Write a sequence for this structure.
């Protein structure tokens, strides 16, 4: 292959490094106003009065409340429970109540400080336990946004046959996406032209749908344009619909363009985070170490509104039983309401939470059965032809056992384990350990999601004789533009430089679906490939393109075709492979078209004087189908591992009354390059029949396996099984002290 | 940027005398602004007090590292970058160089000043324990003259200090002595390896005479409302030969001398134990040098 598997230059790389790329804060218009959001401090209550203090020329300000909304006061996503602006009822701290706009951005900040909200407080609920126990009912009739029951076999009859029954409880914390560029939108909106927004975002058509409902306008009156985006990680999946609505409401009322950009303090405190979780495991095993049954109770904290929580829960539920064969499974999964800002999409989307619990539980089982962590997993890895927890037949050659063997070799696992064991005995304070995790991650939307989305992608010839891809799939740093160009150039048999990517602008590109769920390469990339095949076929049939051709002959053929027919544009629409079947009612069937498989090994050092854990070496070995761009792919994995190290060891959201109080990068501790040690990335390639050139999804995978491998290594180093993350030094200290006290 | 900028003013004085005159004649109005690495953060958050700021960054009278026989004198505007680059400091006062190396990012190290760090009076300041471990003195200047003060007497409570509104820290003086038979220790337990605020920081200095500790200074950050010296622990060690019993006694005393709290970065329990643990590490290093 000429382009696939090659490290071609990043498509927009030059613009980024030369500063030519225009991010949202670079966009300005004459007469533009700045906007800010006035938010509640109370976590739950009834809004009585808004007080505007003296000393501010209030008549100069555009003010928007829920009464100014032309259409529906809800963020159209799945449910319709989340208002754009609170209508009397406050359900979480930092809930938007009032919008202000003014040409002077400094006076605007002063004005925001001079608004106070009088709220009659209602009793709130702050965590999963309180919500499950219905301390107060804060959402619906029972605080439960969504519940799934996933069942395979008959779990109830398994306990009496079991040689071992092992129970455990695991907790994971919230995590912030921490994209470099904070959220922001610029809007132009008026009744004549409709609404146009520019923004730092992942999913132009999500924003489009939300604005249609907010303004009660038809699709052609709403236009959403993605500007160069400095990272997303899920944090710009659903939240931009909120900011876009706010900016557009201010623009609509003032009749002027409005820029609304969050600073880091606001972005950290007010926008979505990864859902905190609480998981209970009960596992039945035979004396030979075969898993006979798993009963899993998986609960997520959704925050105050439903947002995407049901879908996050779904992915977490399906990944809860892991890549292991088990004939009897019951997963009861719930996502519950609390009076905190809603939690949302974040790379991994529910899977890192349930996989952490399962992997830690397997380590616990291995210790109890006196088997190595490796061996227990080997005895239970799912094989080709076997059924997953949802009853999906694995019809690809699964190589988890091979991956395990290779990961053991690359990390020198056995030798390290023995070496650390003997060194640790001699060294009172420095303890080293090595641990592992094995896992999978499904690419694309869950179950019938992709069929339901019906993604559409366009491709056209330009008069310069180039090919332009029309897609709503966004470049957010992960390399969409580059891999799409590689796939198109490969399928067309032309130079990489002849491929252009259209700006994701809903007026110009069809809906290729959201840029989420590790779907861009596998699902949309396949649409690029099939559109390219169509273009080639059209040019051939027109007689302008010979059976063999050079790039310049191809360009000429495009130009001749345009001279004659004025347009060459094709669309390719997603068709679900016929073997994929899913039943939403019973939650059974083919959950994902394909899975990526991985074994990760973490080597850590603990200093028992400070209880600090440091990752010294990390082996990330995965099978992801064909790798399209080795450098970008390795970068994705390294970045994901770094983010996973943050999740496992450093990144702790400190909550007070439902509000994040460490909302600065000084106090929300994301690891730096000095903290993450050596990350070694290895790929195995087993081409997937329905992916472009055989590629599967890769983006989310690395987040799933890092934290459990680190916790496993901590257990190996000091014999302390810590069932929660992040394992900050303070947390490790607390468990260490309580073990001393107990023993 | 959340600040209302029209509420602020800044003025650049021509000389130190000019600056001192302005501070003296308008004591509630003007506040010195050195590297600005702490103040700019507050400005961004809209929390910087609304005052007139005196940009003293260019005042040559406050710059430079000077040495004579008895002291190294660091101008109040000496930056962390300059501290790290100084050969005499590396040789005689390594704790201070280590503190400078672990403060903030490079950009902060280029702008952040020693005088500013002292006057900002954070209990988590990285350079302060190092200065305390060397018995530093401050040279404080106002229109009415210059006074000298042991740094250990400077901080009087949380963000309270013996510095009048018309005064500027002109220099920090480090007393020199022979580099023989010295042991230096500096450890910052931060929230991460770089660009971190300390959760506990310990700086210590010991001078040996034979197998006895002749001189000993122990200082800690982030464990009390100010950075502190631990005089009782110092006294236990001074004039003694190290023994297991002495170490245990010193550790128990140090635990009594600190009063950490729970905050957004760490917990009281953690800080209490870690302070004693790294003190123990320091004592182990001492033992490794001199104990049989």
């Amino acid at each position: 292959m000429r382009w696939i598997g090659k490290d071609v230059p990043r498509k927009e790389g030059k613009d980024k490094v030369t500063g030519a790329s225009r991010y949202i804060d670079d966009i300005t218009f004459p007469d533009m106003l700045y906007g800010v959001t006035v938010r509640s401090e109370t976590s739950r209550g009834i809004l009585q009065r808004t007080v505007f203090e003296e000393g501010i020329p209030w008549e100069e300000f555009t003010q928007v409340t829920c009464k100014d909304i032309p259409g529906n006061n809800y963020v159209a996503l799945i449910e319709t429970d989340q208002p754009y602006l609170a209508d009397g009822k406050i359900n979480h701290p930092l809930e938007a109540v009032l919008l202000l706009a003014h040409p002077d951005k400094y006076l605007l900040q002063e004005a925001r400080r001079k608004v106070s909200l009088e709220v009659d407080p209602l009793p709130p609920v702050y965590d999963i336990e309180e919500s499950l126990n219905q301390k107060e009912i804060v959402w619906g009739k029972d605080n439960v946004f969504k519940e799934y029951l996933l069942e395979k076999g008959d779990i109830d009859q398994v306990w009496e046959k079991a040689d071992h029954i092992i129970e455990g409880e695991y907790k994971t914390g919230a995590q912030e996406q921490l994209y470099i560029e904070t959220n922001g939108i610029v809007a132009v909106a008026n009744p004549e032209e409709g609404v146009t927004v520019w923004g730092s975002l992942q999913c132009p058509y999500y924003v489009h749908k939300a604005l249609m409902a907010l303004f009660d306008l038809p699709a052609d009156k709403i236009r959403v344009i993605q500007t160069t985006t400095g990272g997303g990680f899920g944090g710009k999946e659903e939240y931009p619909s909120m900011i876009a609505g706010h900016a557009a409401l201010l623009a609509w009322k003032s009749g002027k363009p409005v820029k609304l950009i969050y600073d880091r303090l606001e972005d950290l405190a007010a926008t979505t985070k990864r859902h905190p979780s609480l998981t209970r495991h009960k596992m039945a095993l035979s004396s030979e170490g075969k898993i006979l049954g798993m009963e899993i109770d998986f609960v997520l904290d959704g925050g105050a509104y439903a947002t995407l929580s049901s879908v996050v829960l779904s992915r977490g539920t399906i990944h809860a039983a892991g890549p292991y064969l088990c004939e009897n499974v019951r997963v009861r999964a719930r996502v519950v309401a609390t009076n905190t800002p809603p939690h949302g999409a974040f790379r991994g989307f529910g899977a890192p939470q349930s996989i952490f619990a399962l992997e830690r539980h397997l380590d616990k089982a291995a210790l109890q059965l006196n088997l190595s962590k490796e061996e227990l997993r080997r005895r239970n890895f799912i094989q080709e032809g076997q059924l997953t927890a949802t009853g999906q037949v694995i019809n690809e050659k699964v190589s988890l056992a091979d991956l395990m063997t290779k990961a053991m070799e690359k990390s020198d696992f056995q030798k390290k384990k023995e070496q650390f064991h003997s060194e640790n005995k001699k060294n009172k304070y420095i303890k080293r350990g090595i641990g592992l995790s094995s896992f999978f991650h499904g690419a694309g939307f869950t179950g019938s999601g992709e069929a339901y989305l019906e993604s559409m992608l366009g491709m056209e010839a330009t008069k310069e004789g180039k090919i332009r891809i029309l897609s709503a799939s966004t470049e957010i740093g992960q390399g969409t533009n580059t891999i799409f160009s590689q796939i198109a150039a490969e399928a067309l048999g032309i130079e990489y430089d002849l491929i252009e990517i259209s700006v994701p602008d809903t007026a110009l590109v069809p809906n290729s679906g959201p840029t989420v769920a590790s779907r861009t390469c596998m699902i949309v990339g396949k649409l690029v490939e099939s559109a390219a095949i169509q273009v080639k076929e059209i040019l051939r049939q027109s007689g302008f393109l010979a059976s063999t051709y050079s790039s310049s002959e191809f360009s000429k053929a495009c130009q001749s075709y345009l001279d004659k027919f004025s347009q060459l544009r094709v669309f390719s629409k997603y068709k679900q492979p016929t073997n994929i079947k899913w039943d939403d009612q019973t939650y059974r069937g083919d959950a994902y078209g394909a899975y990526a498989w991985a074994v990760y090994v973490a080597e850590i050092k603990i200093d028992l004087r400070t209880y600090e854990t440091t990752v010294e070496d990390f082996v990330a070995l995965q099978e992801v189908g064909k790798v399209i761009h080795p450098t970008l792919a390795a970068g994705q994995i390294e970045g994901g591992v770094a983010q996973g190290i943050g999740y496992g060891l450093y990144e702790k959201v400190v909550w007070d009354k439902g509000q994040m109080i460490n909302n600065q990068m000084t106090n929300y501790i994301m690891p730096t390059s000095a903290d993450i040690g050596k990350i070694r990335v290895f790929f195995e390639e087993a081409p997937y029949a329905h992916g472009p050139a055989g590629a599967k999804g890769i983006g989310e995978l690395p987040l799933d396996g890092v934290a459990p491998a680190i916790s496993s290594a901590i257990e190996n180093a000091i014999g302390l099984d810590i069932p929660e993350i992040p394992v900050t030094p303070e947390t490790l200290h607390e468990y260490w002290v309580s073990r001393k006290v107990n023993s | 940027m959340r600040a209302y900028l029209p509420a602020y003013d800044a003025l650049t004085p021509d000389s130190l005398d000019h600056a001192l005159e302005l501070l003296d004649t308008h004591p509630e109005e003007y506040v010195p602004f050195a590297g600005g690495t702490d103040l700019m953060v507050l400005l961004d958050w809209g929390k910087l007090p609304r005052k007139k700021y005196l940009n003293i960054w260019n005042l040559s009278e406050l710059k430079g590292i000077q040495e004579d026989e008895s002291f190294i004198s660091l101008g109040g505007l000496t930056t962390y970058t300059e501290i790290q680059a100084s050969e005499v400091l590396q040789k005689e006062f390594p704790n201070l160089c280590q503190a400078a190396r672990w403060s903030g990012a490079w950009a902060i190290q280029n702008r952040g000043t020693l005088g500013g760090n002292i006057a900002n009076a954070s209990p988590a300041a990285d350079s302060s324990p190092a200065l305390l471990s060397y018995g530093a003195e401050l040279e404080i200047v106002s229109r009415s003259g210059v006074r000298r003060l042991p740094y250990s007497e400077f901080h009087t409570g949380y963000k309270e200090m013996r510095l009048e509104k018309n005064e500027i820290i002109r220099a920090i003086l480090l007393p020199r002595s022979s580099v023989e038979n010295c042991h230096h220790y500096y450890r910052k337990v931060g929230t991460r390896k770089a660009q971190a605020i300390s959760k506990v920081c310990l700086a210590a200095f010991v001078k040996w005479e034979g197998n006895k500790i002749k001189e000993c200074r122990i200082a800690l950050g982030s464990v009390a409302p100010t950075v502190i010296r631990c005089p009782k622990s110092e006294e236990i060690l001074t004039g003694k030969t190290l023994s297991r019993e002495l170490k245990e006694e010193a550790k128990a005393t140090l635990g009594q001398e600190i009063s950490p709290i729970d905050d957004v970065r760490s917990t009281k329990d953690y800080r209490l134990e870690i302070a004693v643990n790294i003190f123990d590490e320091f004592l182990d290093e001492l033992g490794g040098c001199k104990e049989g």
User: Anything to note?
Assistant: Chain A has three domains: 29-122+177-270, 277-446+587-742, 449-573. Residues 62 and 101 of chain A are 5 Å apart (CA to CA).
